[in-house]
Design a protein that fits this description.
mainly alpha, 0% strand, globular
């Protein structure tokens, strides 16, 4: 009597185990491809930075430390958004892996990696997909307030550009719950049907995540300003700090371009036109990119080391 039910349960268990194995293999392949792409990006960026000129060692080290902090802010913003559905170290690791995956050409591998590794951490694909779409909206809108500072401090920019930058802060309306829900559903339907019915996290989680992402952009902008002033000491601090998140947003929206490379630098030159020499802006952009690549590798390595030490401590008493 019970044998058909038992066979059905065994069949479902076998299929579930097969899906888990395939998922592990695909995630492992993605991580390997990300590491290769990361190594290529690091080597090419180092070569370009040396060619354009490096700042002094203290400046470079300080900028790497700052960008490490900025990447950590982004990782914890993601963990806050996902909530208590998985261990925080696993969620931050999914963010760090996705940062390496963005160096794979195609533009889809960063969100794909974030979804895949978050799913490995125990979050269903449907939920992870919707949260990644939401995260992309939040990290973009977190850069918008800096456009207002560029509009105010960019005295050499044309009036129409300053007006457009100032008006862009209206995009902050996207963080309203009703608008967010509509945007997640709209984007989700064009990426995958899995995101259509995802519920938004609590408002407090969205607010904390947005604040961390604002800090992420602020620290990245500060790091860029330090490098730029090392090449050109006359540039306005406020303009230099605010220009980077706005230029980053331009590169972020250029989805097919890996990490927005080229688009971001062109936007920086345009935003700082008349305030800093183009050659200094390009050199600072390359050095900042080098620091960011190094920071992403350092943060992922630190996360992996902490996880390994935690496992060893947990196994210590039982093995003894």
């Amino acid at each position: 009597m019970g044998s058909p039910l038992l066979r059905s349960n065994r069949g479902r268990s076998a299929r579930s185990a097969g899906v888990r194995i395939v998922t592990r293999v695909l995630v492992a392949l993605l991580v390997c491809a990300s590491l290769v792409a990361f190594a290529i990006a690091l080597a090419s960026t180092w070569e370009e930075a040396v060619e354009r000129g490096l700042p002094t060692a203290p400046v470079l080290i300080g900028v790497v430390v700052l960008t490490c902090g900025a990447v950590v802010c982004g990782a914890h913003a993601w963990a806050v958004l996902v909530g208590a559905r998985a261990r925080r170290s696993d969620l931050t690791r999914s963010y760090y892996v996705s940062q390496l995956a963005k160096y794979i050409p195609g533009g889809i591998w960063q969100p794909a990696g974030q979804i895949a590794v978050t799913n490995r951490a125990g979050v269903p694909v449907r939920r992870a997909t919707g949260l990644v779409v939401l995260f992309m909206v939040l990290i973009a809108t977190a850069a918008l307030p800096f456009a207002l500072f560029v509009a105010i401090a960019g005295e050499t920019l044309p009036a129409v550009v300053r007006l457009g930058l100032g008006a862009s802060v209206l995009g902050l309306a996207l963080v309203r719950p009703g608008v967010l829900r509509a945007v997640v559903a709209f984007v989700g339907r064009r990426v995958t049907k899995a995101a259509e019915s995802v519920d938004l996290p609590p408002g407090g989680a969205i607010d904390r995540s947005s604040l961390l992402l604002f800090c992420h952009h602020l620290v990245q902008g500060l790091a860029f300003a330090i490098v730029l002033r090392a090449f050109d000491t006359d540039v306005n601090w406020v303009l230099a700090v605010a220009a980077f998140p706005v230029a980053w947003l331009a590169g972020f929206l250029a989805l097919p371009v890996p990490s927005g490379i080229g688009v971001r630098e062109a936007a920086l030159v345009g935003l700082l036109h008349g305030a800093a020499p183009a050659e200094a802006v390009l050199a600072a952009g390359v050095v900042h990119r080098l620091a960011n690549v190094l920071a992403e590798g350092i943060d992922l390595g630190g996360n992996q080391l902490r996880s390994t030490l935690r496992r060893q401590r947990a196994q210590g008493p039982s093995s003894a």
